[in-house]
Amino acid sequence: MDLNSPLHNISYVIGHLGSSSLGPRTISELIKQSIYIFLCGIVIMITAIIILWKNERKRIESDKLINSILKGCVELDASNPADIHDDTLVHVTGYLSAENPPKDEELGISRPDSIRLIRTIEMFQHVQVVIENIKRGDLGFGEGVTKTYHFKKAWLPYHVNSSLFFSSTPEFTNPGPESWTFKETDLIAETKIGKMIVPSGLVSKLKKFEPVAVTSEEVEHINFERFNIDRKRVFLRDGIIYIKYRTGGSADDVEIGDMRISYWDIKAQDVSIVAAKYASSFHQYQHAIDNSSIDEEERLLHGSGDGTRSPKPPQRSSLCSCDCYWWDSLYNPPRAAITRFFILYPGLLSKEDIIVKKIGLRDWVFLVLRFLSWFLMFISMWMLFPYIYQLLELILWINPKDLIVSLFSALYLSLTLTLLLIALAWLCTKPCVSAIIVIGCIASYFFTLMFVYRHMNLSLIHISEPTRLLSISYAVFCLKKKRAH
């Protein structure tokens, strides 16, 4: 191969990435550089193969888990639930509503179509902001930290202790915690889908809150006197109740200590549930990955199913509560977490959509690692192309030195090799798809070789006569490029 070819120059530059200068290229340096590039290409290719193979095997695991859970999940009619499905993973869809909507008993605020009502309390307070400036010494030794304190005013849902401020002056003093007359409240009604009672743990998974506008009629019916609040300090603006810290002024003139009360709710809506059924309610279900029953701890937590204990919806365990290898945690939470089903999603969704969304929560990781492995494969092909070219010279009598041709060739080889590895990994799980990919790659290789042979335009010619008249003589043959007619 020509040492001054564009491809060799690029390979030389790639091999010297990170060095201070390229320097003069001697034969010994080029040999060392070729060995270095060859070894790096092999290492990168092996790394790409390992990443791709483990990625596809992990994906196969996820698909098997999804299929096994889908096979055991039962479609349940909420209007007529059957007792034979107790302690079974069920899929229920329907309209989630409450006969008795939640009501704030202190202030008397409620909405007939609500299933969850939240009261938020905020107070206008001083907040201390600290800015640190690091200054080095004149000779670059030592550091000095200068802190600058600023104060701003903001609505906050918690009390800020102004006695801890750097400058504890009356000008920047907040009211004490005793001035918080009301507290934040979260009210969840008893909700149902058909005849099935939905626990509050499932209802709390709905997060799409809408603001509730308090009316002037509702404010007039609130007895503020029992909270030692003068009605002259109460104002209503944009559906939010404002309570002035001092008598006088208006809701537009906000001062330190003012309080505002706002409401948010979740409306009755269509939902989809995947959980375990017990009697007329739901509880958490854990899929047995190793075909064993749910462990004793889970049964003690949710009840044995004999009716002696009412089920209680547990809190979902933290994703970091179980020890797992970094490779497993990169794709999904630990198996014990991803196979616990206590799910509620808004909208009428099929069980396939819910379970795939639950387990395949990080599907983008599979795609990223596929692209990463293909990219590493492409880099390795690019680095090994000088040696591939030499092999092509021996087999096909060609020497493609064009940089664009080599780039597309490396792209083509890396892509087909990546597809072949994916097909090999999925051969037992999806044989038809794997066979189609393998046949397509082999066919593309075949048509590529046919294209190369057709465009070589070479013919075998005889350019000399026998050298002597004896029975043994010599002749010369060579390859000549065909002329275009």
Give a brief outline of the structure.
With 485 residues, the protein is of the alpha+beta class.
Tell me the span between the first and last alpha carbons. 31 Å
Low-confidence stretches: 1-7, 9-24, 290-331
Structural class: alpha+beta
Gyration radius (Cα, Å) is 37 Å
Keywords:
485 residues; alpha+beta; seven-stranded mixed beta sheet; seven-stranded antiparallel beta sheet; 20 strands; 35% helix
What does this entry look like structurally?
It is built from eleven helices and 20 strands. With 485 residues, the protein is an alpha+beta fold. The strands form five sheets. Strands 1, 2, 8, 9, 14, 15 and 18 form a seven-stranded mixed beta sheet that branches. Strands 5, 6, 7, 10, 11, 12 and 13 form a seven-stranded antiparallel beta sheet that branches. Helix 9 crosses helix 10 (403-425). The longest helix is centred in the N-terminal third of the chain and has 46 residues, at 27-72. It is flat and about 115 Å long. Mean pLDDT is 76; it is low at 1-7, 9-24 and 290-331.
